[in-house]
Amino acid sequence: MAKENRADLQGKVLRLADLVAYQDGTVASRMIVNKPVGSITLFSFDEDEGLSEHTAPYDAVVTILDGECEVWVAGETHQMKEGETIIFPANVPHALSAVTRFKMSLTMIRE
């Protein structure tokens, strides 16, 4: 799918994994919805890339779109693969790391 801006995506059937490409040795992201009440951002992670432990002030819903990763939430480890979803609660430490190249959707719900 050609790179389109956010407005061009509205009203279309989308395959989210196709909207962000893998890039060697790094993490790539693409925000597809950005509203005052929340956002949806797509990420691709090359193998061995990840996000270090952090917290967020809002609940975050992560859905794996392709590949496999490992996530940590409040000290508990989870193995995740395509089609699986986890909710990171607001203000709870979490992190993730690629087991293979993987893509994910991150939905932030702001209060």
Automatic annotation (TrEMBL):
- InterPro entries according to UniProt: Cupin_2, RmlC-like_jellyroll, RmlC_Cupin_sf
Record-annotated Cupin type-2 domain positions:
44-108
Q: Per its UniProt record, what CDD domains does this chain match? A: cupin_HP0902-like
Listed Pfam families? Cupin_2
Q: Which PANTHER family match?
A: SLR8022 PROTEIN
Q: What is this protein called?
A: Cupin
Q: What organism is listed for this UniProt entry?
A: Methanoculleus sediminis
